[in-house]
Amino acid sequence: MTENEIAEIVFRPGMRIHKTIGPGLLESAYEACLFYELNQYDLLIERQKSLPLKYGDVELESGYRLDFLIDGKVVIELKAVEQMSSRHTAQVITYLKLTGCKLGLLINFNTTLFKTGFRRVIN
């Protein structure tokens, strides 16, 4: 499955979650719902995947965790914030560099319209 196909799959349940429970909850609530929804598909879903930091020849346990890594290809970072910032995008770009993935999805559930909180980030 391609990165674009995975992104299309993720968008649909994300919109369903947003429509059903709406904005205003904690990020962890949306994460649990999205995990449940994505398990309905034939995808390898890694939730809260540990992400070591490679610095030169050393691999450091830094405490970073990906919200989701899908099929080893797409990084998903969830937010439930009033407004997205360039810092959130930079976070996803860094995760893409550290994982070698090409596509990241930055999803903010704290929006009036789901599609305005759904961003594709390319490495």
Q: What does this protein structure show overall?
A:
This protein is α+β, with helices and mostly antiparallel strands. The chain is 37% helix and 33% strand. It has 3 helices and 5 strands. The chain has helices spanning 3-21, 27-38, 86-99, and strands spanning 45-55, 58-70, 74-79, 103-108, 118-122. It has a 5-stranded mixed beta sheet with strand order 1-2-3-4-5, with helices on both faces. Helix 1 crosses helix 2. The chain starts with a helix and ends with a strand.
What's the helix and strand layout?
Elements: H1 3-21, H2 27-38, E1 45-55, E2 58-70, E3 74-79, H3 86-99, E4 103-108, E5 118-122
Parallel strand pairs: 3-4
Antiparallel strand pairs: 1-2, 2-3, 4-5
> What's the total count of β strands?
5
Give the low-confidence spans. none
The largest sheet, given as strand count, sense and whether it forms a barrel, is: 5 strands, mixed
Strand content: 25-35%
Please give the radius of gyration in angstroms: 14 Å
Structural domain tally? 1
Measured as a percent range, the helix fraction is 25-40%
Name the shape in a single word: globular
Separation of the first and last Cα atoms: 18 Å
Mean pLDDT over the full residue set? 95
* Class based on secondary structure composition and strand pairing: alpha+beta
Strand order of the largest sheet: 1-2-3-4-5
User: What string gives the helices and strands in order?
Assistant: HHEEEHEE
Number of helices: 3
